Amino acid sequence: MDDTYKTIEEKAEGIYKEKGSKFIAYAYPIVSEDEAKEIVQGLKKEFYDARHHCYAYRIGAKGESFRMNDDGEPSSTAGRPIYGQLLSYDVTNILVVVIRYFGGTKLGVSGLINAYQSATSDALQNALIVEKTVDITFTAQFGYPMLNEVMKVIKDEQPKIEHQNFDNSCTIRMSIRKSRAEVLEAKLGNIEGLSLDIVGK
Q: Which of 26, 61, 74, 141 has the least CB density, counted as fewest CB within 10 Å?
């Protein structure tokens, strides 16, 4: 089961210059479309004097959600080349915005495509690309007498404990990579009287 994906650890920058035009690329790790929109709006305010703010993003372990925007450049000369680099580097949960300062000389369609590709590629080369796992989150609720049995399963399967509360009624929220989730679910499901809530399956 494929339960990993590549993304960037933190913001990265790249630049490309051609015939007086300057293309500045900013790459950001993101997890939602709203986050992408917020960053784009922020950059438009910060670089209000730039001619274009073109971008592309991919979200989801397999890049299920994506968008490209040419922001006034000729169709498919900006957003698509940026997106193409995200595919080439096989990264997701990422937004790249390329800000263009016009230098007075038109670059033509092929020149624009090359410029947006090159700026994006430079940012991705400067980025720290990391591999992350697709995780499933379990919330187990059970009576205190079952605690030892639950903790034995946790010790065996090694999920990451995110929150726990031990009282008369105990709650443990834990996450585990997708490829190992089925075994954990089966073992916890065998404990009589335990209720299990699963997110991300």
A: 74
Contact 123, 25 (CB under 8 A): yes
pLDDT level of residue 201 (50, 70, 90 thresholds): low
The token duo for 128 is 């720290």
Average pLDDT over residues 50-63: 95
Supply the pTM of this predicted model: 0.81
C-alpha 72: how far from chain center: 26
pLDDT at 44: 96
147-157 vs 178-189: helix crossing angle, rounded to 10: 160
Among 132, 150, 185, give the residue marking a domain's end: 132
Kindly report, residue by residue over 59-102, the tens digit of the pLDDT. Answer: 998 899 999 999 999 999 999 999 999 999 999 999 999 999 99
Distance CA 84, CA 136 (A): 30
First to last CA, the chain: 13
Nearest Cα to 116, choosing from 98, 95, 92? Answer: 98
Is residue 19 domain-shared with residue 89, that is, in the same domain?
Answer: yes
Instruction: Tell whether 69 and 146 lie within a shared domain.
Output: no
Residue ending a domain, among 132, 148, 177, is 132
